[in-house]
Amino acid sequence: MNGWLWAAAVLVVALAPLLWVTVRLPAPEGVVAVEAAGVDATMALLLVARGTDREPFADLALVLAVVSFVGAIAYLRFVEVLRD
Amino acid sequence: MLRDVVMWLLAGAGVALQVLVCLGVTLMRDALDRLHYASASTLGVACLCGAVLVRDPASLIGLKTLLTGAFLLLTGPVLVHATARAIHLHREAEARR
Fold first, then answer.
1. pTM surpassing 0.90?
2. Domain-by-domain residue ranges, chain B?
């Protein structure tokens, strides 16, 4: 394992507390942890791509960044529309 | 040599910032405090993408890193604003009930 993969491993371990917060909190507050987890996982995938020299992981990181953003915005819109 | 030092400094700072973000989101009690820490992840993104770009700027992985980093840096503030607005409106609606 090289330094890039060790850095990716640290970021993957850091996802665990975010998962715990997401499960524990009620709906609108928990989305903050989901957003942070999306960025964290995206960075982990980029580091894996660099560490293994495999481009598909970088593709995955880009797709995850877009899907994470669109999903979070859609969910927040849903929360706003249904608040009353 | 100098390039390696800069690369590992950026990578270490990026990982440390991301871990700090995770700890802040986990340990803070209020949703807006959590959001404050989550917004700091743009710094970690900048450092980590910078480290990858210093390692090899002229490759496909470098190009995709640039795209991903630019996307996260541009959409991060939008997401934080939308989240803060949704939490605020949700709390107002809860207070009216």
1. yes
2. 2-96
